[in-house]
Every structure is written in C-alpha cells, then in structure tokens.
Specification:
mainly alpha; globular
C-alpha cells in the first residue's frame, strides 16, 4: 500500500485549509531524510543476501537519486559485536526497515485517532468503550494498563519471532534478507496450533510478483518509512515544543504529558521514588 497517499488523503480531510503547506513540509522531509540503507534488491533464490558498502551505494542512488549515498557517521564501515561488516550492514538495514514500518503504522494511526475514528464495539471485556479523545498522545494515556500490556505482549512475540533463524529463514545478520519476517510455522518446531495467515502477505497476493516489482515496492516502502519517521516525530514535537515545527503551529493540539513514557505510572522508577 502506498502509505504516503493514504496519509495525505487523510490530512486533506482533516485540515483542508492548511494542507498545501503540510504537503510541502512532508515532501521536503522526504528529500532531506533519505539515507544510505535501502531494502535488498538481491533475489531470494540466492544462498546469501549479504550486502557490502558498494552495494549500498548503488541501491541508495536508485532509492533517491537526489541524495544518493549518505552515511555521515560511517556506519557502513563498522563491525558491530565482532560479527563482520556485512553482518553489521544487515543489522542496520533491518533496523531501518523495521522502524520505518512501525512509523508508518504510527503516522496513519495518529491521523485516524485525530479524526475520532474508532471501533463501535467495547474495547474491554468489562464493557469499557474505546476512548473518545482526539488528541492521540492523550488518547494513549486514556487506555488502561491492562490493554497496554496486551499490546506490548503481542509486540514482544512478534519481535521474538522475527529473530528466528531456521533452515528456511536465515537471520538478517547471517546472509538473510533484511526486513523479511518469517512465516508462522505450526507443529513441533513452531507454534503449537494452526495459524492460517502470515503477518506478511496473508492472502499470497505477491506469490507471482516479478523481482522487478518487488524491488520497486521495497524502495517505495523504505522511502515512505523514512518520511513517516520524520512525520510522526514532527507531530509529537509540534505538540510538546511550541514553535518547533512552524508549519504545524496552531494545527495540532498541545500535549503536556510524556510522549516517551508507555505508562502513566513510572513502573521501573516507582521503587526508587521516581
């Protein structure tokens, strides 16, 4: 899905008078946010999908011809944890792809909640409804801790599963494909119950997709992920630091809470009086 088009469409509905300036700001951040690490363009039929710095330079130029290869911290030359340079590049690329996907969910979710869109049924078994708050950070504060723990439990499981290395799925630091999520496997060596759908492509729409199309869509996903990371933090900065994002001044409601605190209570700091 082209998250960028969805985001801009929702913004048009929400803020019709200021959408022109907001579009300009978002497109500007897309150009400024391009960096070196891009999705793998190597066929999955190969035994190893490890990339070198030279590969990154080629991919980066395809991903954004204007910026090209940009690595001011020289991360592509590093060797993390003594695993080698190719393993390090695999880690960095996977991390960026994953954070981009999370940011796209966050950006779209922010717009949805800012418009007051929610499920019509009860949120909890006790009949509690979904909060009606339209200030997204404040809405998160209104969600019960029990519901938050369920969300974090699902995230922990998905994180655990994504790190698995099996004969059919190499780890991204050992020649596997960065950003690739393993299929849900049932049976003795997997999940102890049937799982009809996978997280990625549950209906097998991409089964017969050409490698060229996959490459193009991976580049689009990475660029949209970079834009979404800048976009969601732009929203949060505009809400918590007045004037930090001039084009959003007066567009978003202020928020005086802690955007980086998952719970209203400091669970880890409470025993220490924090």
């Amino acid at each position: 899905f082209n998250f960028l088009l969805v985001d801009l469409s929702l913004l048009l509905i929400t803020y019709p008078n200021k959408i022109s300036k907001m579009k300009l700001a978002l497109l500007s951040t897309l150009i400024a946010g391009a960096s070196a690490f891009a999705p793998s363009t190597t066929s999955t039929t190969q035994k190893s999908l490890s990339a070198t710095k030279a590969d990154l330079e080629v991919i980066a130029k395809k991903c954004n011809p204007t910026v090209g290869f940009y690595d001011p911290l020289a991360l592509s030359d590093k060797d993390f944890w003594g695993k080698g340079n190719e393993a390090t590049i695999g880690f960095l690329r996977h991390a960026e792809i994953k954070h981009g996907r999370v940011a796209m969910f966050a950006f779209v979710g922010y717009i949805v909640h800012a418009n007051g869109i929610k499920f019509p049924w009860a949120m909890q078994m006790d009949g509690a409804a979904f909060p009606s708050e339209t200030n997204p950070p404040a809405l998160w504060d209104a969600v019960s801790d029990d519901a938050k723990w369920q969300i974090f439990s699902l995230i922990a499981f998905l994180e655990f599963w994504s790190e698995l290395s099996t004969p059919d799925h190499k780890h991204y630091m050992a020649g596997g494909k960065p950003g690739d999520f393993p299929d849900f496997v049932s049976g003795p060596d997997g999940i102890p119950h049937p799982v009809p759908f996978n997280l990625y492509d549950p209906f097998k729409f991409s089964k017969n997709m050409s490698e060229e199309t996959k490459e193009r869509r991976l580049r689009a996903e990475l660029n949209n992920g970079r834009l979404a990371q800048l976009g969601i933090f732009g929203f949060l900065c505009a809400q918590t630091i007045p004037g930090s994002v001039p084009l959003l001044s007066g567009v978003l409601p202020a928020y005086d809470g802690e955007t980086m605190a998952p719970f209203s209570t400091n669970i880890l700091g409470a025993p220490f009086g924090l």
